[in-house]
Structures are given as structure tokens and as C-alpha cells.
Amino acid sequence: MHTNVMEGLPDWRDESNGGLVRGALWLLQVIGIGNVFTKSQLREAFPDISQIDRRVRDLRDWGWVIDTSREDGSLRQSEQRFVKPGISVWDPAERKKRTRAASASTRQAALERAKFACELCGRPAGHPSGTRLHLTRRIPLAMGGDDGLENLTVLCSDCSAARDSGHGVSELAAQASSLPMRDRTRLLTWITMGERPRTPVEDIWAQYQQLSSADQQQLARHLARLLNEDTQVEDAMP
Ligand SMILES: [Zn+2]
């Protein structure tokens, strides 16, 4: 007997699922295999999800075949064809079978965005020694997160361990209240901005780590010379 692929599927309108999952279900339940859809149909169906086209494009990483005019000359530029479903992204068990590493170029892009340092505490790789950087997902795969650049974050070993052990909010609040006023203000600024802006000196330090040792020495000599000049100028002052 032919099994209905639609049987037992969650409803695509269920807002507790992420864009990737809802997009997949929408293709199956609304568009149907082999049919064409447009970007505006997609946006109309998901007015609440920003970048839904990208989420649907990400399905290709999960084995979904979605052709564009590049793959299928009969399609207009605004059209895509849902050719074939891939991994059942709404099923955590199915998703786990596929242990996907982020692509090399995405990893590189994430590290460059982080300027090769922890995006939480700013520590660069190897400083202090033993500090390793990990790529982790902001939203885990099981909760609809993906391996797109936006969902990846670069954390040092300590920060990722702290995140995994899940410090409770009350513990963090206690730690935060024991900070000096200046640090509390900085923390609130970071929280408001949604990021920790690197100071210029931290930026240079992080990029210095990436230089060859010859270039590192050159930069060190340059700074030493500058410092020396500054000192001489100070000495010459009355
Ligand atoms: Zn860190």
C-alpha cells in the first residue's frame, strides 16, 4: 500500500516551529511536489518570518531539491520549483541522523566576523594558552536552528562550557550586581546593543594573533620604536 507522505505531519502554520521547518511543511502541504512557487507567495504565507526565502533555500542543505531558473531554464527568475523533499527537518530524530558540520566557507566567514576571538568575552585563540575557539549554534538544530552564518557563534572553551552548564539568571544577576558601576554600565550597553563592541586595541590584538611570526615581530619592533620616540619627546620636555 502506498503510504501518504502527508500523514502525521505537523501543520505548517504552527508558529512554535522555526522558518526552516515551517517552510518545508508549507512546500509539502501547500505547494506540493513538482509545483512552482514564487517569492511573493512565500512572503505572503510567512509575513512574520524575516528572510523566509533564505530559510527555504537552506532546505537544500538538508537534501531538499528546489530548482531556480539557474537549474531549470523553464522557470522565471521569480519562480522556484519544489522538486523533491529531503530530510524530515521537523523530526528531531531524523535531523540528528545527519551530523552536519558547517561548510568550510561558513566556518571561515564566522571566524572572520568574530575577528578570530570569542564573541562573548573577546579572548583570541591561544590566549591565554589552551583557549580554543568553537563554532556553536545560537539556536540548536533540534529547535529549528541551522548551520547558516547567522545562527553560528564563535565561543572560547570557557564561554561555551558556561553556556552548556546554563548559569541561571538569578546567579548571573547576583554576579552582575557585584560588578563595579563602570562594568555594570558597559554590560547594559552590550545587552542593549546585542553585541560586545571590541575596542580598537582589542581589535588589533586579535588580528595580531593571525599574523605570521615574522609579521608579529615587525609589529612589535614598530611599537617599540614608537614608544621609544614618545619617551625621548617626554625626556626633552622641560
Ligand atoms: Zn569567551
Explain what this protein looks like in three dimensions.
- This protein has ten helices and five strands, in the order αβααββααββααααα.
- By secondary structure, the chain is mostly helical.
- It folds into two domains: 19-97; 104-165 and 197-224, no CATH class.
- A three-stranded antiparallel β-sheet has the order 1-3-2. It has a two-stranded antiparallel sheet with strand order 4-5.
- The longest helix is centred in the C-terminal third of the chain and has 24 residues, at 213-236.
- The termini are far apart.
- The model has no long low-confidence stretch (mean pLDDT 83).
- Residues 118, 120-121, 123, 155-156, 158-159 line the site of zinc ion (ZN).
What's the quick description here?
The protein is 45% helix and 9% strand.
How far apart are the termini?
99 Å
Strand order of the largest sheet: 1-3-2
Shape: elongated
Total discrete domains? 2
SS summary, helix count: 10
Bound molecules: zinc ion
What are the segments in which pLDDT stays under 50 over at least 5 consecutive residues?
Answer: none
Integer-rounded radius of gyration: 25 Å
- Helix and strand sequence: HEHHEEHHEEHHHHH
The total strand number stands at: 5
Helix content: 40-55%
Strand content: 5-15%
The description of the largest β-sheet is: 3 strands, antiparallel
Q: Assign the structural class, choosing from mainly alpha, mainly beta, alpha/beta, alpha+beta, or little secondary structure.
A: mainly alpha
Report the mean per-residue pLDDT as an integer.
83
